[in-house]
Amino acid sequence: MNNDRKQIKANSRGKDKDLYCQMSGFCQRTTIHGLSHMYQSKTSKRKIFWLTVFVLGLVATIVHLTFHAMQFLESPTIITLDHEGSEFEFPDVTICSQTPTTSRFYERGTEKFPNIQNGFTAMDLLLYPVYNQTYDSVHLLPYKEEILLHKRLIQHQYASMPTKHKGFALDELVIKCSFHKSDCRLQFTLLQNPYYLNCYTFQPPERNLKTTRPEDGLLLLLYIGNAQKNNIFPGKNATITSRSRPTSQKRETSNDWFARILLPEYEPAGVKIVFHEKDAFPALRAAGSIVGAGQFSEIELGMIQERKLNKGSSPCVDTEPKVWFLTSLDESGWPVFREFNAEPGDCIYEFQQRDLYKECGCTSHRVPLQRDHKMFNSIDRGDQVGWCYNSTSLLLDLGLDVNQIVKSVKGDPAKLVNISKTAIQSSHANSRLVERYLRRVNCHDSLLDRFSDPHYNSIQQCTDGGEKALYACQKNEYKSVHSTASWPRYSDIQEIIEEDILPALLIPKNNLSDGNKTKVEYRPLAHDLFDFDSNGQWIAQVELVKENFVKLQLHPVEVLVNVHREEPAYSIWEALGELGGIIGLWLGMSFLGVIEVCEFVIDLTSAARRGKTLQLVKRKEPDAVSGPYGEAESAAPELLLSEIPNGVDVDQSTQNC
Q: Residue 315's closest CA among 467, 476, 478?
């Protein structure tokens, strides 16, 4: 037993001595000055001094390298400009009429979609008295004049109903479309909006244009429905009465009424146009420009391609992330979503809808809605979307079935008035329902006012990266220069009508009801604008053409565009240069020293893996020792300072390996 223990101790001492000899050889031949000085020192004090210096240098190196790595990862970026580094890509173009609907909507709605007219009838004659009484009693909103209250009721009704058949059809808004000298009227997709009703997005079939000539770009002739011949509903002596003061009633035409009810007062008649990247959701309220009625605008498009750097503080991805936005409501009120490429501004919409849902318990129709949000759930009476403005839901709460009421009264206004009086007299229960509805609307409107504040918390969280959202590393930004002139000239009106407007409004002969192939018939829009005699000759008012049409011509400024490339403030090679400087500063270590350390580690691990101890080889000279590769090297002093007796010279205590 004792012999075994002695053997184990002897083997352990042998291994320690082998390790010591290996380290001695490394210290002897290394280019790291701290270790070589420690090896060459003759006294214990000098060895301790150089060991302390080496350890301090090692600690300083680790701290400095950590700081350097953090600075490299979070380093600011610089923008480099590549002239003509990419081809111009034609953007998507979204257009909306500033007059969301024409007066013919009323008649078309009466014939094909009676629920539209019935809805307005119920709002006007049934809900109005209840709303009026509730406003007087609870004083929730700052709309004291009844005309403003009436405007709000109509907006409520629009918010909870599909707008597809209220706004412009594509063949009404776009009279002529030419892109790259080819007809492009089939390249539009519908996008419904509570402000503009029906907007349309042009998606070009070919985006890389090879020329900057205006005729090869996008040419649009648009009808905006700003005025009709008699400016009233066709075939009806229709007027809307403002009831703010019964003693001094103001009568206005239907078109004035629609414009006042549906349009913000500061925007002129014309067309809203927004340029945006391919398959991106257009920010109709925050971006774009307006071209007024009776104007021709030549728009020169410029593009800058931005290529971001994917780094920790602002990550991005190579492929376009996707997001689904509500684009329309079908006939049953069910939401229709469409896929778009994610944009940084989408984050703001998400935060706004989240705050509305949290504080008001409902969804705003005035803020774009994403499909993957929890608010896309039933909230009120099984509605598909719990809109804050939902007068249809309120009608059901009051027990007023619009279609059933209209059917029962059979067009007798007196019966309808009696029903409205009964609704008021059924009293406090109805008032409480309306009050609850108005409080929800008031919460919605108050919060929307706060959204415009630049210090609004949710916008701050979005812009500051409160939630890390990934966007594409490559983006195109578009800028435009508009050249606008009054249009059309008097001498050009006849040519425009005969070559552009009337051919677009002509009913195809195959679609004529009587099958008369020689008969020429035009769609109702043509009769809203022009008079026709028995011979089919047209008569037009010059001002009517000017007030109803807008011409746009869009083309790129240059075929090759600049690229803004984001790069780190210093490259990886500069970082490696600083790395070498840090190691050299604190340790006196070069690239050769790094290789020596790697070699030393490999030698140790190889020996441990083989399970063999390093054997001592005595040199012929008393002051030499065989190195790890058999070369004759100077004898290394002992590194284990604890084994050196005090006061004894190192040379006397050095053991040959």
A: 467
